Amino acid sequence: MSKKPDLQAETEARPQRRSPRRALVSPVLLKTTEKSVGPPDERLFYLVARDGLYLCRQHEFFRSCVRANSGPSELAPQEPYFEPRFPQIPRDAIERAVGFFSRIADLHRSEAAVLLAWSRSERRVEIVVPHQTATVSESASGYRYPIGVHYDPPTDLPEDWVVFGDVHSHVDYAAYASHTDVQDELHSAGLHIVVGRIQSEPPELHVEAVVDEKRFVLQPEQVLEGYRARRAEVPDDWIDQVEVKIERYSYTTYRPLDSAH
Ligand SMILES: [Zn+2]
To answer: How far apart are the CA of 193 and the centre of ligand 1, in A?
Structure first.
């Protein structure tokens, strides 16, 4: 009887953990129950628990488990990323939004906001102007500067519309995600576009996406079809959606510009 089949059988019967590839990787266990016990013959292993990754040791003199700063060195590294797959925002939509912000800036010197919704049935982007309260600070001489804009998400949209982002104006100030924006948008996954320097044509556009409390800066061309010029025609019912709250300027109510928007 040839030994060859026996050798083959022995190779196949070997536990998988003895294969060279497996031996290079530190064991990684999932903690699925309150009580966790490491593999008896492993002095070091990683544990994935609800609150993160842990490095555990079963040493001759102790057992330990500490939060791991990094994963097993045998694994490939991973960088956070965000790949936008949003519906492309038509040129017409962003031009109408900027036209609206421009008119509101002329009327009130205030910020304003619109929502971007995707109509699943029509397969197109719709602009939604929610009822909103824009706050401005006004000095004794009548000079105003914008503080912020707030709105509640509308509850009366058609069932097949899904809101995937918003656009708001910073009036004459730069387009960037302010501290207030970052706080407001922390749990608001999706696209957040800021329009700044509204007196310029084109104005400044700043685009960020938020997911799982992380922000990613996108290039406008990743989500916008383009922009040529703001639209002069603004529906009256859009303008009527903006309520303005005036805070009288005084040294006691003064807020540094950094806290605005
Ligand atoms: Zn803002």
So the answer is: 9
Distance from the CA of 209 to the center of ligand 1, in angstroms? Answer: 14
Indicate the pairing of strand 44-49 with strand 28-30: parallel
- Provide the residue range defining the domain that includes 190: 91-259
Contact between residue 201 and residue 229 where contact means Cβ atoms under 8 Å apart: yes
**Boundary (domain end) residue, out of 78, 110, 139:** 78
DSSP-based three-state secondary structure for 156:
coil
Are 44 and 107 contained in the same domain? no
Q: How far is the centre of ligand 1, averaged over its atoms, from the C-alpha of 58 (Å)?
A: 52
Q: Are residues 96 and 69 in the same domain?
A: no
Number of H helices, E strands in the chain: 5, 13
- Ligand 1 (single-atom ion) residues, CB below 5 Å: 178, 181, 261
Counted domains in the chain: 2
Residue range 65-124, pLDDT digits in tens: 999 999 998 888 999 999 999 999 999 999 999 999 999 999 999 999 999 999 999 999
User: Which 3 state secondary structure label does DSSP give 92?
Assistant: helix
3-state secondary structure of 103: helix
- Ligand 1 center to residue 172 CA distance, Å? 12
CA of 203 to the centre of ligand 1 (A): 15
Q: Do 100 and 71 fall within a single domain?
A: no
CA distances from 195 to 171, 221, 253 (A): 8, 14, 26
